[in-house]
Design brief:
The complex is a heterodimer of chains A (116) and B (113). Chain A is an all-beta fold. Chain A has no helices and eleven strands. In chain B, a hairpin with a 2-residue loop joins β7 and β8. Classes of the chains: A mainly beta (116), B mainly beta (113).
């Protein structure tokens, strides 16, 4: 089946530093990937839609200069949290679709970011 | 806009009990409907799906039927196991929401021996 690999699975960084999270589709090409943020005991909040070869589409209220998304190839999207602060601590999850628009999403295992 | 509503959790059941997690949706036309499961510390996994009215999705003993008349997609299992303890998310992709998957708030299930 379609596998999405997300790395790292957890990261601790100091306030003011930047952190990069990678999302790879291992056995399929993903023209579109999605980045979500999940707060404890809450649902997923869509942050942005990442399109291969073009700029990401950010949801309202998500700072595009804070959360840099690059989708350089059909199998890789990256999310960089720039100048991280403790309030950026969260669980970040990427996903990708392997088929048509109404086919299900395949999720990575998420990245637990803790900013100290 | 499109939305998904789920029953509030947490739900605690004894092993072998019956499970129903209610899910209703608001969307125009005929959305595709999904149930995802999230085990502790992990991402989401697709549990089952249904793409048209009266379709029944099933997997690992779980079932859900797409009911257009009641705009529902309730998740059911006849006999839960401890290993079913997780958070369950109902979701939809609407005809007009294209790439966006709309998630419900999630329902936490704990199964005790």
């Amino acid at each position: 089946g379609a596998v999405v690999s997300q790395h790292p699975s957890w990261v601790i960084c100091k306030s003011g530093t930047s952190v990069k999270i990678e999302c790879r589709s291992l056995d399929f090409q993903a023209t579109t990937m999605f980045w979500y943020r999940q707060f404890p005991k809450q649902s997923l909040m869509l942050m942005a839609t990442s399109n291969e070869g073009s700029k990401a589409t950010y949801e309202q209220g998500v700072e595009k200069d804070k959360f840099l998304i690059n989708h350089a190839s059909l199998t890789l999207s990256t999310l960089t949290v720039t100048s991280a602060h403790p309030e950026d601590s969260s669980f970040y999850i990427c996903s990708a679709r392997s088929g048509s628009y109404n086919s299900p999403l395949h999720f990575g295992n998420g990245t637990r970011l803790t900013v100290t | 806009g499109d939305s998904v509503t789920q029953m509030e959790g947490p739900v605690t059941l004894s092993e072998e009990a019956c499970l129903t997690i209610n899910c209703t949706y608001t969307a125009t036309g005929y959305p595709s409907l999904f149930w995802y499961v999230q085990y502790p510390g992990e991402g989401l996994q697709l549990l089952l799906k249904a793409t048209k009215a009266d379709d029944k999705g099933s997997n690992k003993g779980f079932e859900a039927t797409y009911r257009k008349e009641t705009t529902s997609f309730h998740l059911e299992k006849g006999s839960v196991q401890v290993s079913d303890s997780a958070v369950y998310f109902c979701a939809l992709i609407g005809e007009t929401s294209y790439d966006k998957v709309i998630f419900g708030p999630g329902t936490s299930l704990s199964v005790i021996p």
